[in-house]
Design a protein that fits this description.
The complex is a heterodimer of chains A (about 550) and B (about 230). With about 550 residues, chain A is of the alpha+beta class. Chain A has 22 helices and ten strands. In chain A, the strands form two sheets. Chain A has a six-stranded mixed β-sheet with strand order 8-3-2-9-1-10. In chain A, strands 4, 5, 6 and 7 form a four-stranded mixed β-sheet that branches. The longest helix of chain A has about 45 residues. Chain B starts with a strand and ends with a strand. At the A-B interface, helix 1, helix 16 and helix 22 of A face helix 1, helix 3 and helix 4 of B.
């Protein structure tokens, strides 16, 4: 009769004790299995949602703060509010003062290439790049418009996406520059090169007009790798009208209705057409996730159209183009807004990528220090924090319950097993008096406890999972409701207006909503969880038998039996 | 050579700072085939002496040898496992096991060579000691005191050892039962060539023994010695 057989006899012949141990392990096991599977499920859900999401940020001028400062200074220096009723009010002078003050406030906080490079060198930044953009036109080439192909797909009928212009009308194209051929969109998989190559460092440095175009745009216009195409800039002059600065025209106050006046209003006249020739280096396929949003008011299909027609090229080439446009505009249309602005258009959009959220937070602090709050940090995880918050809260709670459960199990099981063994002192004394090796006596007790415990663990694994699934789903629902109103908490971030965000427009959104996350959350019982739970459970039981085993080893059979 | 030699053993209990001597330089030899009774008043140290013989305790000085080897060299657990069997006043059986299972437990612990047909041996042994097959399969807490002590004796015999040590084996039994048990001990010594050492304050047992030793004031006094 081996010690294992003795263990089995003990379990069978002492059903009361066996059931007490089984029930206790089952109850504790439920607590542990439940909290553990919640914790694991949160991890899985987070990992699934976070997969491939790298924190990315760009900067945007904090116009709210600048405007506040501007209003303050206007009052302080006695310029005050313009009096719209006063026909003699000098708007020109007023706007001149405003512009001057604006530049004064911006001061050192203007974002330029040096500042971007300084930020890019920060240890928190993993990768950085910046884009100069250009917009060119064509009367021949056509964008690819997804809606033209499957206009029935939107469900609600009308989509806000654009449709192709008529024959001979102009279409416009966005060129996005980069310092390097291995730019972020390519790195992050927003686009995938399917043919040709991206530009190399020499081409980037020289400013060659070499471009990457999308598969759809290429097909639409019958372009291949090696093809060349021409885009234009049309210099148009407005005859005589009161040309104002700041990119608008001021409609003179005239009699009659606005609509009548508008129809009579003379259109611009074409002064010059600039040709730019581009060589196709590579063809890419944009990686666009289908959006499930059927609400026409939140339709973002125009962004999709933009991404499907984006032309990537070196910054230096775009700079050349902008410079040439400025020179030609200044010469042919000196009254135009571009000539009047005094410099080529070079809006710079920086992009910073981080290893993790901590890097992003550190970066945000650096930006705050460098720009004194005049630059917002726009990141692609803006609402990610909010999305994972309910899960993390629950995971935190589950974590506490897990530790408390394991601790309680250790104490309760240690006590219970020791108590049971006290009842069996004589039996153990007999084995020892008969000369049984202590290791085998310990082995028998372990076998007894383990057999019952593993049964209890197995039962609780499944029931604990069911309980935690029900519990955590209702917890998440509650938290989702609570958190839906909350706002972004990063210090120098713009106010949260909902889903609109410059980075999202560029394809860097997380594409996950609170509801998605809640829906994705599932308490699953995968192989890993089962293995970890068994191993953890067995270790816990083993630790619980430590005190009882010490008790056995200390037993003196003479004192018990004689 | 004697089977068990006790050489100059001393034993005392520590009572605070004072040592209370129970056994003073006792030496004795025990042979195969003889039935010994150690006799003495309650509190004279009989149980203590048996504990030293059975390696459940160790002398403060002196040694116990088995076939000329110090039992400490043999290993106390191993000595208990393979050389001796102990029968207690309180029977000390595993209460939730059957009679047969209690015997089997001892057989599974010893390293001694045992017959292959263990099951049969167990029932025969129990039958020999007076436990029928039907009672052999009952859990022992359903048996009478006399039956339980028979099971304990069967367990002592099952491991095929030469030395049977018993501490007041009939202390909880009536006279009739005592006579039967004593006859078993006699048979074990004389027919099976065992060395049987029984500690008792019962004169009835002393009457049947080959050798009776009186323990008094920590010393052995030879009381009766019938040569075999
Ligand atoms: N663990 C102990 N601690 C102290 N004194 C003890 C202990 N065990 C026994 N004694 C004492 O030792 C003496 C001998 O005890 P014991 O060997 O049990 O005698 P017997 O079996 O002859 O009645 C007794 O006086 C008893 O009180
Ligand atoms: Mg005694």
């Amino acid at each position: 009769m081996s010690f294992f057989k003795r263990a089995i006899i003990s379990i069978m012949r002492r059903p009361g004790k066996t059931v007490i141990l089984l029930v206790l392990v089952f109850i504790l096991g439920n607590v542990i299995a439940g909290s553990f599977s919640i914790e694991q499920s949160v991890k899985n859900t987070e990992a699934a949602v976070l997969k491939g999401v790298v924190p990315v940020a760009t900067l945007q001028e904090n116009y709210m703060k600048i405007n506040e400062e501007l209003d303050r200074l206007l009052v302080e220096r006695g310029h005050g509010e313009p009096n719209w009723e006063d026909p003699d009010f000098d708007y020109q002078a007023y706007y001149d003062i405003r512009d001057e003050l604006y530049r004064e406030i911006q001061g050192d906080s203007v974002l330029n290439v040096e500042k971007i490079e300084e930020l890019g060198a920060l240890p928190s930044v993993d990768f950085y790049d910046y884009s100069i953009m250009a917009s060119l036109n064509s009367e021949v080439l056509r964008k690819y418009y997804p809606d033209n192909e499957d206009s029935g797909s939107s469900g609600m009928g009308v989509r806000m996406g654009m449709s192709a212009p008529e024959e001979g009308e102009r279409d416009w194209f966005t060129m996005r520059g980069s310092q390097t051929g291995d730019f972020l969109d390519l790195k992050m998989g927003l686009i995938e090169l399917v043919d040709g190559r991206t530009f190399d460092d020499d081409e980037a440095a020289r400013g060659d007009n070499v471009v990457l175009i999308s598969e759809q745009f290429a097909a639409q216009n019958n372009l291949q790798v090696g093809s060349t195409f021409i885009l234009n800039h049309f210099i148009e002059v407005w005859p005589d009208a009161g040309v104002a600065r700041g990119g608008g025209i001021v409609v003179e106050r005239v009699e009659g209705t606005f609509a009548d006046d508008f129809n009579d209003f003379p259109g611009p006249e074409l002064a010059e057409t600039l040709d730019f020739e581009f060589t196709v280096l590579g063809i890419y396929e944009p990686n666009i996730q289908p959006t499930s949003n059927d609400n026409p008011w939140e339709d973002t299909s125009y962004l999709e159209t933009e991404r499907r027609n984006m032309i990537y090229m070196p910054n230096s080439a775009i700079k050349e183009i902008q410079k040439f446009i400025f020179e030609e505009e200044s010469e042919n249309n000196p009254e135009g807004w571009l000539a009047q602005s005094g410099e080529p258009q070079e809006y710079i959009t920086p992009m910073f990528a981080f290893r993790d959220e901590a890097g992003l937070n550190e970066f945000a602090d650096n930006v705050e220090a460098m720009f004194g709050g005049y630059q917002w940090v726009i990141d692609n995880e803006l609402d990610f924090d909010n999305i994972v918050a309910p899960l993390r809260n629950m995971s935190g709670l589950a974590n506490i319950i897990l530790y408390v459960g394991v601790g309680a199990s250790l104490i309760i099981l240690s006590l219970l097993i020791t108590l049971f063994l006290r009842d069996r002192r004589t039996e153990i004394g007999i084995y020892l008096a008969l000369g049984e090796r202590k290791g085998r006596v310990v082995g028998q007790i372990l076998a007894e406890v383990m057999t019952v415990a593993i049964l209890g663990i197995t039962l609780s694994l499944f029931s604990g999972n069911l309980i935690s699934a029900a519990l955590s789903n209702s917890m998440i629902d509650n938290q989702v409701m609570e958190l839906q109103q909350k706002q972004n908490s990063r210090r120098n971030a713009p106010p949260d207006w909902g889903s609109d965000n410059q980075l999202k427009a560029m394809g860097y959104g997380t594409e996950v909503t609170l509801e998605d996350m809640a829906e994705n959350y599932k308490v699953v019982l995968d192989g890993n969880i089962i293995i970890i739970f068994y191993v953890g459970g067995i270790i816990t039981i083993l630790l619980s038998t430590l005190i009882p085993i010490l008790y056995i080893l200390r037993l003196n059979p003479r004192k018990i039996l004689m | 050579m004697a089977l068990i030699d006790v050489n100059q053993i001393n034993y005392f209990y520590q009572d605070g700072d004072t040592k209370r001597y129970i056994l003073n330089n006792i030496s004795y030899s025990f042979e195969r085939g003889r039935f010994y009774t150690i006799f003495g008043e309650s509190g004279s140290g009989k149980t203590t002496f048996l504990a030293l013989l059975s390696a459940l305790d160790q002398p403060k000085a002196g040694s116990v040898s088995y076939e000329g080897n110090d039992i400490k060299k043999i290993g106390l657990d191993k000595y208990r496992r393979n050389k001796i069997s102990i029968i207690f006043q309180q029977y000390n059986l595993v209460p939730y096991m059957t009679a047969a299972e209690n015997v089997r437990v001892a057989m599974s612990i010893t390293d001694n060579k045992l017959p292959d047909n263990l099951n049969e041996v167990v029932y025969n042994l129990l039958d020999y000691i007076g436990i029928t097959r039907e009672r052999a399969d009952r859990t022992v807490n359903k048996l009478s005191g006399g039956e339980q002590q028979r099971v304990a004796i069967a367990r002592a015999l099952a491991t095929n050892v030469d030395v049977i040590l018993a501490d007041e084996p009939t202390g909880n039994l009536d006279d009739e039962m005592e006579i039967e048990i004593v006859q078993i001990f006699k048979k074990l010594a004389h027919e099976h060539n065992k060395c049987v050492i029984v500690v008792s304050h019962s004169s009835q047992i002393a009457d049947e023994a080959d050798e009776v030793i009186k323990l008094r004031k920590g010393n052995f006094e030879s009381y009766k010695n019938t040569s075999s």
